[in-house]
Specification:
This protein is mostly helical and 578 residues long.
Amino acid sequence: MHRLRAQSISPPKVNRWWFSIGICIALAGLTWLVFSQTLWHDFINYDDPHYVYENTKITGGLSISGIAWAFTHIHALNWHPLTTISHMLDCQIHGLKAGWHHFTNVLLHTLAAMLLFLALQQMTGAVWRSAFVATVFAIHPLRVESVAWIAERKDVLSGVFFMLTLLAYLYYVRVPRVRGYLVVVFLFACGLMSKPMLVTLPFVLLLLDYWPLDRIKGQLWKRVAEKIPLIALSAVSSVITFLVQKGAVGQAEELPILERINNAVVSYVLWLWYLGMLVPVIGLVQVGWQGRADRYTYLPQIGLYIAATWAVTDLTALYRHQRATLSTVAILVIAALSCCAWIQTSYWRDSETLFRHALAVTTNNDVAENNLGIVFLGKGKLDEAISLLQSAVDLRPDNSPAHENLAKALLQKGQVADALTHYRKLVDLQPDNMEVHNIVGTVLVQQGRVQEGVEEWQKVLSIEPGNGNAMSNLAWVFATSPDQSIRNGAKAVQLAEQAVRISGGRIAILFRTLAAAYAENGRFVDAIQTAQRGVELANSQGNSGLATELQAHIALYREQQPLRDPSLTNASSSPHSE
């Protein structure tokens, strides 16, 4: 595992850069051969909604205020502002065309693989070994989750910064200047702001100091001290991550015994790369719902690839046909991995394909049951959806998303009482989720339990006074209930005016509520004017149904008659809800 012997089988120095360029091109081509199919894939209904297509901060595109938000807020229970900004940029340029979001993932992964090859080549001088390690990294089936899943942008983006940090560190080692070290610090900080899993990178750099850079001898503490600024960044990133996710690593000659022992030590060091980089995700400190996942091996497995590649090369050093044999084996390994990765990537075509496959190859998978249930719910296949979602909550009774989706399916099926049971369970699991309380209030009203629904919405406002949904729901009931004991015209006006003000006057249906509140108070001129504003806004937004309904209300108000909603007594339909 020595650099000099590795250099002996490298191409002539005069051709090395051209050779490296050729290898990078081949590496890029193979990577795209495996993953280019994702350009025709869709979003996945697991995490992609939170990361991209249901997150208005992201879909709004790139802006100064958006960038500020990325650095000052958490995004999908993570603080990774550069990853957030990359999603914003995709939406700015491509909108919600999933293929282009996939394009960015594949591009970043390709760049990471090429940078890995260049870094290893520069550190070891072993061109072919470095090329093999980078190729296995690029097309191993375990990479599929990180590349084919848009929500895992953080893996491929942090991978690019990881490789850039390695190259910058190598340059600093060769030309030890403050400016070079600051570049290392900057790139490492960018990596942490892409994915906090890079917190163990200072440990990896220390391993590289031992091999292949050979900087440890007699200077261990100096090398450790050199990493203190990087370790400090890691500490800050770790604290931030814990806080935001709280509650959620030549000549073929016989080697002397001492050199063989040294090679064994180096092999263990490379294993330490793998184990060290896994520390943030092995679950000793539980943060979120983490468990084993392919994406957690994205960078840590590089150490295993290096250890295996260098070990096999050294163990076969005395074999006369080493080069031909290892070249053949390498080609077969790469071909097999590429084939497997291509097949695995095909399962990520869409949510239904992915989760059908997941259920076919796993057992007791409540996540797959839930997400496939969502697919069927979206297609209106309620019986299939209910069956899957019920299985999900039976497998894991504290699966909040499954309870919520099952409640939605049951509600659409007309099984209101059963739906309410699961919404109540969801409230127990997420007591601070005010929107669940809003939904519970709506379901109670659907059952004819109007007063209980009102109490639920009042509970929301007592905890979150600015909750627009609770305001508008209460205002509608107070203004239009046939039950005089429930109606409260003055309160209805107060709540409805506040809801319109909070919305910025951009939600047409709130003008329906405010008009009804004015009518209940006998302010019919205001009711007519407000309803007319609602008609104009509804028409401008293409909501002709609401516009027609408001025209009917205007006719009623012109006759000096307040509006009454019969559904608030017979539970035939839901009250107004945003």
